[in-house]
Amino acid sequence: MVNLALPVWAAVVLLGAALVAAFLPGRPRAALVQNVGTRSRDDMMNDLVFSMDSPKATLATVGGKGENLIQLTRAGFPVPPGFLISTAAYRKFVQANDLQRQIVALARSGAGTDYEAASADIRGLFERGSMPPEVAAAVQQAHAALRSGVEAPCPVAVRCSECHCSEPECGARGEESPMAVRSSATAEDLPGASFAGQQETFLNIASEQEVLQAVKRCWSSLWTPRALVYRARQEIEPDTVSLAVVVQKMVDASAAGVLFTANPLTGARDEVVIDAAWGLGEAVVSGLVTPDHITADKTTGEVKEMEVADKAFLTAPTAGGTNERAVEADRRGSAVLDAARVAELVRLGRAVEAHYRMPQDIEWCLADGRLWIVQSRPVTTLPPEPVRWDSPVPGAKWMNDLQAAEWATEPLSPLGATTTFAAMVTARQRKFRMQKEPWYVLINSWLYIRADFRILTTVARCMWWVGRLAAGTMDRHRLVRRTWPPRLAVLDSLEKLELANLSDADLHARAVRLLRELGWWWWEVTWGSAVTIMCEQLIGKLGVPHLTDPVVLFRGNDSLLLDAGRALRHAADSGETNAYLARFGHFVESADPLHPTLRESPELLDQYLEMARYSQTGPDERLARSRRERIEAEGHVGALSGMRRRVAHRIIKAGQSNAAHVDDSVFHFQRVLALLRATYLEIGQRLARTGAVEGAEDVFYLKRRELTRPEAQMASRVAHRRELCERHKKLAPPPFIPPRSDPAWGRDRTLRLFSSLMGETVIRRGTQEREGRRVLVGTPGSPGRVRGIARLITGPEDFRRFQPGDVLVAHATTPVWTPLFNIASAAVTEVGGNFSHAAIVAREFGIPLVNGALDATRDIVDGTPVLVDGSAGVVEP
């Protein structure tokens, strides 16, 4: 509505702008009016404090959050009124108290050693510091004006019910309402840095003195342990940073949440995703509560999918701050937003996105039936184009985290999909036809395994296993002694051949032979792991007194992978690496031949050696510890009597004989992978010489049939496929297709059997709410409980970022990752079971592991502290 106290010219301009806005399509009326008629108070303030509509403020002066709020306010969006305390005020406080030299010295002294102590000392300096009179006066003047309601008349010439502004009718002016005091970092919300959330927020601050104290605390939060660690990782010097502060009238929200104007998981630009919970937004942002999760159509606002969560707690204002309290029983399971409110939020989000001209991550709240925006930032992690995760087989169900996926750390190359992974999946399925055909597919280049099972085949095979176990005929040692020597002789001979001397026909025949060998060794890995897991579960069901962890019964085996650890330790101490590479240089990151071997990666070898020098214990000490634990566990089993004892001994004998050869199977499996990569590179070189492709590495973007029958225009096809693979790397593949909420999963009669065989946690994992806390649930992989800084590692190129004591967070690990476990305090993976590489190595090194934690790399923020409970299979923020 028009403010009658305005001059006539201002009223005319305001009315004219409103009329123009009404007749211009495609732009929100609010976004077309730049607070015309609002008297800027910058002339009443110096460079220490800026008004919320200031045209003078910049990123350098008010930080990322402050600059975004100014843009939203000037565009007429419903932002709670307030003011901004600039970085100049921060620097004046530091200068007046002579803190800069002390801050820099303390920050640098704590780097890599004791960030907690350095932070405590720096924050103590701020606590004891005196607020400069000119800063205090500027803040007090702005605070008084805000509380008196002088600050902001209606920003747009429309009804208050439409703009939700700060007019008296909206209940936001003329009252002595409490304040929200928020930090605004100068690098916050930039695409190249993730400072958002590093500093602190203080809510429900009432008096002037409390506001000034909260401002000091915000400034000091620039030096929290988390912020110190993050800047050290990013190599940002401590003398280059400063902090601005946002002070706003606090909205006493009945509900709040986050809105994405594009689907952050699929990249769909035609969808809006909303998280909503009761009370203040801190409950959602801090992860205190699992919010309702809503997907809506961006054009119509219609709800496409709504998951209503059990919202046990909310954040509510109290005198001088906030606290968490229980939600009333009748509201815990109720939807926070109805369809009409969702549609209203979608319209608001669409208008904000139109203003910024890019997808936005918006923090919103609802108070007295009106929506407010408290922050908006660009979504910088969206896939480059909308992606659908649909089954290529109508009615089929798929999973991306069965055993083969542990070796698929990235989207598969066309060659890897049609050679190595085809051979692996086929070899397993031919031996055990448990799943329906097709056994696997690529969806957006990510590997998915069929999750529809043949019930009769599964039951029959399980009965066959049990029968063999009862008969005592599952001794793996005898089978290995009989079948491995001729296979190893083949590998030895294949390794000695000079590829350059082979004809094209012989080279392709070699690739075919190697794929057969790969399938054979993969079945050895699969069978040994499966029998060991089965025996571990059966021992657990026997209820052996005092046996808390049945897995220790099947550990303590010497192996070629332990030999690799010994050789690496020797190479690190002596500086001689040739012998190590000669025997272990075939280690690979993935079963996709696209990925280089350790022998081809001198930089990775340097990182290996560096991490080996950090290690406190060697392979032999870890092996001895595992054997002591196994002997102790065997003693508990030996205390059984009668049939239980005989059954337990049969189970242990079978499990131990299979577990003893799993690591060596993996070792030889990798030998074949390295030979295949070399063979395909030789084929690629020959294709490049004929002009079919530009370089040898292009061969990995061809399909198997194209190796022998190259077609025209291969170069453009390779370029397109390479670009597609790079785009698909940025996707977050869902663990199940269709999603677990689809009724098809509930109707699956084999799902209960599958869950009983593999464990219910294979299905029920991911982010959940437990006892009022938002946690990430996986499966227990290695016992223990550790808090550390999460470090998201996507591949060997990230290894150098990993520091001693970090928590390793990864999609999956393979033996090439082993040195990281030397220095990790704990680990979290999205893929794997009790005999995955991560589980075996974590137990060997004695560090906690949670594996199979769906969406860990998406839900855990790099550089933030997490608590890893490997015994319970839970990760807490």
TrEMBL record:
All residue ranges annotated as the PEP-utilising enzyme mobile domain in the record: 802-873
Pfam families per UniProt: PEP-utilizers, PPDK_N
Lineage, highest ranks first: Bacteria, Bacillati, Actinomycetota, Actinomycetes, Kitasatosporales
Species in which this protein is naturally found: Streptomyces chiangmaiensis
Name of the protein this chain belongs to: PEP/pyruvate-binding domain-containing protein
Domain of life of the source: Bacteria
Residue ranges of domain Pyruvate phosphate dikinase AMP/ATP-binding in the record: 61-161, 173-383
